[in-house]
Each structure stands twice: as structure tokens, then as C-alpha cells.
Amino acid sequence: MTLGERLIALRKENGYLTRKTLAEELGMPDTTLRNYETDVREPGHSFLIRVSEKFNVSIDWLLGVSEDKERTNSYQLKSSEYALIEKYRSLDQPGREHVDAIIQWESDRAEQIASLDSQIADLDVQKRIDAEVEDYRRQLELEESQTDGSSVSLDTAAKRA
Predict the structure, then answer these.
(1) Which of 21-25, 89-93, 138-142 is the least confident region?
(2) CA distance 69 to 44
């Protein structure tokens, strides 16, 4: 399959019935896109990047270098993480399913822990609010007792509390 054939297939798979619509979205004349689709001209790197990002396909696939269509994310992985990926790829299907199930279980567990941590933090905030409300209530009671003719000072009231 040529680059042009891949472009046509991508355009149609993604609901662009005409070149003009896709060309407008890519910010280029439809005649230029036609030249790419008919393999009359070869696109530059900026066009390839835009198409790769828009349709989430690899540039290697667009150019026919690879049959792996999906674009890969370039994470900053440690060498030990690459080693784990290589081991995972060497597993048969039941092995991969087992690893996937373990990862999903651990991910769910981590989410539950995070949720509990959040709930605990919310409880701590509520306790602080309750304590502040109680302090304010005591202060109001103290002020009321002072306005009733009592001569209790704030220092004395604080020592009693």
C-alpha cells in the first residue's frame, strides 16, 4: 500500500467523504492533498506529523515502513520498565490475560486506597470545622456572660476552658 492509498483509506475511515473537507481541516489546498493521495508529490514532515496526530497513526505506518498502524506514546521509561514490556510481549495470550488481570486488580486497589485517603482527609477537615464552631460558640457564651454583668475576664475564661 502506498502513502497515497493509506491517506485515502484514513480519510474515508474517518468519515471525510471529500478531500476538500479534510484539506480545510489540515489548513491546505485540496489540490495539494490530491497530489499526496495520488502519489504525485511526497509530503513534508509537518504534514505527516499533523496527519499522525489527527488520526492517531504512526508516521512509520503512513510511510509504509511498518504495518503497526497505531501511534505509540513516547513515555520516559526506565530500562527496567522496558525489560518488563519485553517480558510481557514474550508471553502467550493466557499469560498476558493473567498479567492484565493482576494489573487491573492492583489499579482498582490503589483507587480504593486513594478514595479512602480522600475520605479521611474530608473527616479531618470536618473535625477542624467542628472544633472552630465549638470555639466560636464558647466565645459567644463568654461574651454573653460578660454582658450580663459578670466581670469574668477573657484570660480567666480561657483558663477555665
Answers:
(1) 138-142
(2) 19
Phi, psi of 155 (to 5 degrees): -65, -45
In contact, 146 and 131? CB cutoff 8 Å: no
Contact residues for 29 (Cβ-Cβ < 8 A; gap 6+): 23
Rounded to an integer, what distance in angstroms lies between the CA atom of residue 5 and that of residue 121? 56
Is 144 in contact with 150 (CB distance < 8 Å)? no
Kindly list the distances between the CA atom of residue 126 and the CA atoms of 82, 112, 114, 133, 139, in Å, as whole numbers in the listed order.
45, 21, 18, 10, 20
- Across all residues in the chain, what is the average pLDDT? 87
DSSP, collapsed to helix, strand or coil, labels residue 57 as: strand
Residue 151 has pLDDT above 80, yes or no: no
Q: What is the pLDDT of residue 153?
A: 52
